[in-house]
TrEMBL record:
<keyword id="KW-1133">Transmembrane helix</keyword>
<dbReference type="GO" id="GO:0016020">
    <property type="term" value="C:membrane"/>
</dbReference>
<dbReference type="InterPro" id="IPR011701">
    <property type="entry name" value="MFS"/>
</dbReference>
<feature type="transmembrane region" description="Helical">
    <location>
        <begin position="174"/>
        <end position="195"/>
    </location>
</feature>
<keyword id="KW-0813">Transport</keyword>
<keyword id="KW-0472">Membrane</keyword>
<dbReference type="InterPro" id="IPR020846">
    <property type="entry name" value="MFS_dom"/>
</dbReference>
<dbReference type="Pfam" id="PF07690">
    <property type="entry name" value="MFS_1"/>
</dbReference>
<keyword id="KW-0812">Transmembrane</keyword>
<dbReference type="InterPro" id="IPR050930">
    <property type="entry name" value="MFS_Vesicular_Transporter"/>
</dbReference>
<dbReference type="GO" id="GO:0022857">
    <property type="term" value="F:transmembrane transporter activity"/>
</dbReference>
<feature type="domain" description="Major facilitator superfamily (MFS) profile">
    <location>
        <begin position="1"/>
        <end position="270"/>
    </location>
</feature>
<feature type="transmembrane region" description="Helical">
    <location>
        <begin position="21"/>
        <end position="41"/>
    </location>
</feature>
<feature type="transmembrane region" description="Helical">
    <location>
        <begin position="242"/>
        <end position="263"/>
    </location>
</feature>
<protein>
    <recommendedName>
        <fullName>Major facilitator superfamily (MFS) profile domain-containing protein</fullName>
    </recommendedName>
</protein>
<feature type="transmembrane region" description="Helical">
    <location>
        <begin position="216"/>
        <end position="236"/>
    </location>
</feature>
<feature type="transmembrane region" description="Helical">
    <location>
        <begin position="122"/>
        <end position="143"/>
    </location>
</feature>
Amino acid sequence: MGLLGGPPIGGLLHDAYGERAPFYFCISFAILVIFCLGSLIEVRADETLELREFDTELRERARAKGIEYSVPVKTTLWQIITTKRMIAAVTVTTLEAFDLSSLEPTLPFYLRERFGMTEGQIGLVFIAFTMPTIVSPLAGWISDRYGAKILCSTAVTMCGCFMLVMSIENKPLWGIVLNLVAIGLSTSSFIAPILGEISAVVRRTGDRAAYARAFAIFNMAFSFGMLIGPIIAGYIYQHHGFKWNCITTACILFCFVPILIMWMGDRKAKMEDVALYEREEEERRMMMAEIKLIKAERRAAEELNSATLYQPSA
């Protein structure tokens, strides 16, 4: 929403209040975000610290009761990134960023040259890109029910087809808008299950401390797509025009579909992921309940010691 909502908001502010208005808006919005982030209370972070603090005692008490908690596993960044399912997730992330960033710098020039549109009008056209993001929850539901493989491979293929349609010359403005809606719809669909896929990869490794590294890989992949998209699209647009820019983007999308079909999680993998997640959550709840019991026992022992220490001698 941030990437796709920026162009229409920036364009309208530019036309209404001048070229500095979008920058003032960004500064104000950044300050608001910083304040909101500073106000958040990370309950799960506190729970993680407690689990680490009481880990040894929890395992001793569990063994005494005949319960065996899962043993933490250490993995390297290379082990995570070379997992086939992770490679597929990184590929989808890069494709999504590439798809967005290849249109963002070239489409405004195309609309200005073809229709003589202003910044504000171009921003309004980009709303067609933004609106389809409302289907992301539906895409997530499809991924939860049928797995990410069928959703991502289908959506990437459709996005490539719509990019080919976008390359058709002399389309009316309403045709371009409808095409952008279709591209935004497919793009929003194939990025929806990616964070779940990355979480599943980390969960299967057994390394509960690897989530930050895995999501860092996600950010790197997105940044890489945002980096190469404008460079490739700008070069092709400058030398061959908007038509071949769209065709090139479509070909790149098609080239990576086989990786998604081979390596992304299917329905069976999704069911296994859900079962593993439920087991982990149940184990976490048991451990947190045990920590509360340990704390209560310690407080009771401290109160008893204090009462014994200050009890007047007969």
